[in-house]
Amino acid sequence: MTTIAPLQPAAETDPSRITRLLPGILFATVVGVIALGVAAVEARAFGHPVIEGLVVAILLGMLVRTLWTPPAAVNPGVSFTAKEILEVAVLLLGASVDLPLLLRAGPSLAVGIVLLVVLGIVFSYGIGRALGLPHKLSVLVACGNSICGNSAIAAVAPVIRADKAHVASSIAFTAILGVVVVIGLPFLIHPLGLSFYQYGVLAGLTVYAVPQVLAAAFPVSVLSGQVGTLVKLVRVLMLGPVVLFFALKHRNDADAPQAGAARFQVTRFVPWFIIGFLVLAGLRSSGAIPPGVAAPMKSLSTWLTVAAMAALGLGVDLKAIRTVGKPVILTVTASLIVLITLSITLIHVLGIR
Fold first, then answer.
1. Percent over 90 (pLDDT), the chain
2. From residue 307, how far is each of 122, 223, 293, 298 by CA, in Å?
3. Residue 123: per-residue pLDDT
4. Environment class of residue 278 by beta-carbon count within 10 Å: exposed (0-12), middle (13-18) or buried (19+)?
5. Binning pLDDT at 50, 70 and 90, where does residue 102 land?
6. Average pLDDT over all residues of the chain
7. CA distances, 156 to each of 52, 66, 204, 250 (Å)
8. How far apart are CA 80 and CA 8, in angstroms?
């Protein structure tokens, strides 16, 4: 979800891990609190935030990262906040959703999500090849655009034995364009005449990463945010079958000795927080979680999400766009336009209101 280097392996019981993560967690939290302060100033000046706190947190994090290179000591904690803390926030969010309301579109929406991911990969791959991108780079861009951005790129890269340069270039612009989508997507609501529910579906189908969906949808409405989150989580589940497909397709590559490092593991692609989100949503809808308990869980989820948004921004370096070639930029941009068009078509075909 971010461009920050992944955490180095460490034992969960190692007390030093807390010491290693704490500076970055506090750093991201401070940036998030400042972002909420900016949103509060906007609300006082204009009656409502012009740019919501979640989006401000991303932009502020990007600004800090672009103007100043944070010390390496904060990187592990920032990466942890952008991933693990975000996952906890999404899990807790399940306690405040009305699952029957979110599922009112029926199973046809789930089928539509699967179809959209498949078509998105096919069209994106075709655009990349038409613009002269190598096969493996086209695959990375297609999966990143169609499923979940950098997470999909990082998951697919080892099974197709992608070059490091291809991984870096596909991630760099995808991360930056993802933030652009977060800011720009709400402007489509009025021209397209979308309801809050429809917009939530659109955000879940098109925005790259889970935190970006939260930032693009919740400022519009709570319903949009909840619907967008659920749709996005279903879309993320497509990562497993897609990685398995490419693992089988590339199993006879010439550099097959690397295959051990690319072994497919189902458990890696059924994230625990998605299961937890659905379990809590079911408990909330059944009344097992009363409103008095759900409210503080929602508040905690909001605070954790703001910190994760700041960490996400801190992982996006705008200067990285200089290293991305024009064909990659054109492919990612054109693929996104196709994805948005397919999503809007799907919304109308399914009669989602």
1. 33
2. 35, 22, 22, 15
3. 95
4. middle
5. low
6. 83
7. 33, 28, 21, 11
8. 11
**How far apart are alpha carbons 127 and 122 in whole angstroms?**
9
Q: Which two tokens stand for residue 308?
A: 């994760």
Closest C-alpha among 350, 352, 110 to residue 234: 110
* Residue that wins the pLDDT comparison between 303 and 265: 303
Question: Which of helix, strand or coil describes residue 101?
Answer: helix
Domain count along the chain: 1
CA distance 103 to 86: 23
In order, the DSSP letters of 270-293 are S-HHHHHHHHHHHHHHHTSS-HHH
Query: Is residue 139 a contact partner of residue 242, using CB atoms and an 8 Å limit?
Result: no
Amino acid letter at 301?
A: S
CB atoms within 10 A of CB 289: 18
Q: How far apart are CA 7 and CA 21, in angstroms?
A: 10
Instruction: Concatenate the DSSP letters of all residues of 234-267 into one string.
Output: HHHTTHHHHHHHHHHHTTT-TTGGGGGGG---GG
Tokens found for residue 304: 């954790």
Parent domain of 255: 98-303+319-349
Q: Is residue 267 over pLDDT 60?
A: no
31 found inside a domain: no
Residue 265 lies in a domain: yes
Contact criterion met (CB below 8 Å) for 205 and 346? yes
pLDDT given at position 253: 58
Report yes or no on 309 lying in a domain: no
73 lies in a domain? Answer: no
pLDDT at residue 342 is higher than 90: yes
Q: Indicate the pLDDT class of residue 207, thresholds 50, 70 and 90.
A: very high
Which amino acid type is present at position 281?
A
